[in-house]
Amino acid sequence: MSKSQPVTPPEALPDAPRRWHNPLMVPLKAISARLRIGLGVAFFVLFVAVWALVTFSGMVSPTFLADPITMLQQGVSLFTEYNFSLDIGMTVMRVLAGFLLAALIGVPLGIMMGAYKMWEAFLEPFVSFCRYLPASAFVPLLILWAGIGEMQKILVIFIGSFFQIVLMVAVTVSSARRDLVEAAYTLGCSNRSIVRRVLIPGAAPGIAELLRLVLGWAWTYVIVAELIGSESGIGHMIVDSQALLNTGQIIFGIIVIGCIGLVSDYLFKVANRRLFAWSNL
């Protein structure tokens, strides 16, 4: 029986063709944190540069798109003359109220659906149906049922978040490792203990991550809720600015929403990383 010969790598061969490759374009290869931040900042700089080019050069009329400097000036006037901080506070309150209400009801219901197939068969068709209904379609009905006060706006966010949370939590819980469940049964755990000690702890990191995603979606629903019958909030300011053709204030409001969303997303990530540090082991 002949011995196998060691394989010589192609790059070690003298006549092997050498192909240039970009080390940054290797699929799934991690990059340094400094490079990641630098690339992210670079895109924002490029975006603002293109924005400034098309506005300062007159390619786009100021009526349709304000330039960056005008946008900042009008943003400052929102805080100094129109008490925009109150609008921001009202919008944040509505988002948190609707999202927390959806999470408090949706997470337990999703756990029940994911753990017990009977409840999944009973509720999943209806939840899946409602998941595709746009929250904005409920605005006329909610105005009739709850008026144009705070409850109507909170319910829009609740409807937009609730069904997403229920279904995603159910899928996360039902994807639990079967070997852990069988091991728990072998150790004498009851059905209720399986849910409490195996399924919920195992699904907790995934549930926290999906809640972070749904919180981002909730910010899109609040603007829809504030567009009609609102006297405060970022959405209300955007509607007023649209009536005055003040694109600078509209853009500033959109940017504020994006900044608040980024901050909330970062805080959620930090909290998840500290609460479930063991999930990355």
From TrEMBL:
Q: Which InterPro entries match?
A: MetI-like, MetI-like_sf
> Where do the TM regions start and end?
35-54, 95-116, 128-148, 154-173, 210-229, 249-268
GO terms under biological process: alkanesulfonate transmembrane transport
Q: Which residues form the ABC transmembrane type-1 domain?
A: 88-268
Question: Domain of life, per the record?
Answer: Bacteria
Localisation: Cell inner membrane; Cell membrane
Its membrane topology is listed as:
Multi-pass membrane protein
Q: Which UniProt keywords apply?
A: Cell inner membrane, Cell membrane, Membrane, Transmembrane, Transmembrane helix, Transport
What GO cellular component entries does it have? plasma membrane
- List the PANTHER family: ABC TRANSPORTER PERMEASE PROTEIN MJ0413-RELATED, ALKANE SULFONATE ABC TRANSPORTER-RELATED, MEMBRANE SUBUNIT
Q: Which family does it belong to?
A: Belongs to the binding-protein-dependent transport system permease family. CysTW subfamily.
State what protein this is by name.
ABC transporter permease
Taxonomically, what lineage is the organism?
Bacteria, Pseudomonadati, Pseudomonadota, Gammaproteobacteria, Enterobacterales
